[in-house]
Amino acid sequence: MPTTPYDVAAQLGLPVVKLEEIQGTDLAHPGNGNWFLWTGEEERVVLRRYHVLRTELDLLFEAKVLAHLTDRGWNVPSTVAGPIRYDERFWAATRFVPGRPRRSETPEQRAERGAVLARLHADLRDLVLDLPQREGFFQGCDLAAMGDFQGWDPGVVALRELRPDLADWADAAMAAGRQLVAERNLLELPQVIVHGDFAEWNLHFEGERVGVIDFDLAHLDSRSWEFVMARVHRSPELVTGYQQQATELGIPLSDEEIAATEPLERVFRVNMVMAELWTGQHTGRFDLPAIEKQLGHTGTPRP
């Protein structure tokens, strides 16, 4: 009998008054899935089904980060129940973070997002020494390690059967990205605990309160990589707001960290190609237009 969210809630010991699908709730999909679950008339949590790649140690890293931030007064989705392994996937219930994201930010709001990020990094500083790298994660610019983990080579082989031109371009982009990382010493940037997706849709505002959701990509990396993942290419005020707040907090960005953002943008696009290849291998469907689009953003000439 197929798994249902009701089955999982029962295993977690949670009563279900009401259940509402949010996103990614196709139970056959390898990615995350989320449901609102009411355990009482006014009591709501988020039932979360984790990506097929998540492991127990991996989720422990995320749980420690969220518990640490909760202790410091942050409104984040810390664990309420679980995680448990059910039907070969990990599931948990997490705190509901109220409020709504800003779908269209003004320049001032983008700077505000940067300031919030600086405060987040500041409150995570003392946790860095206690946590090793998250299992299954690497620095975003460690293309060799990430390629091995996500099956870059077999992904390119499979792509070559469909579009040899895109496969050649992907190999050229990977080689150029790895050379850029070496030339700019991008793997030597200082490490912090990054959120990993500090985009506007992952901040919830409710009056004067701000909540931060989706720590699914939190890991040890550079602040420069954090900016890239926060879509700094269309939010330049993010760094200005961050630097002002970080300077007040005694953790200003260095010139090297600021300069690293541009080359990391190109490396990020190689990562996006890598993600498309992984998805294609596991679903049997390659999104060729998406792959071609991301390759076009790598700055690598088409062979």
Write up what this structure looks like.
The chain has helices at about 5-10, 55-70, 105-125, 145-150, 150-160, 165-185, 225-230, 235-250, 255-260, 260-285, 290-295, and strands at about 20-25, 35-40, 45-50, 80-85, 90-95, 190-195, 205, 210, 220. The chain folds into 2 domains: about 5-95, 2-Layer Sandwich (Phosphorylase Kinase, domain 1), CATH 3.30.200.20; about 105-295, Aminoglycoside phosphotransferase (APH), C-terminal lobe (Aminoglycoside 3'-phosphotransferase, Chain: A, domain 2). The mean pLDDT is about 95. It contains 11 helices and 9 strands. A 5-stranded antiparallel beta sheet has the order 1-2-3-5-4, with helices on both faces. The N and C termini lie far apart (about 50 Å). The protein is of the alpha+beta class.
How big is the Rg? 20 Å
What is the number of strand segments? 9
> How many structural domains can be distinguished in the coordinates?
2
Give the class from helix and strand content and strand pairing: alpha+beta
Q: CATH class of the largest domain, please?
A: Alpha Beta
Strand order of the largest sheet: 1-2-3-5-4
Head-to-tail CA distance between termini: 50 Å
Residue-averaged pLDDT, rounded? 94
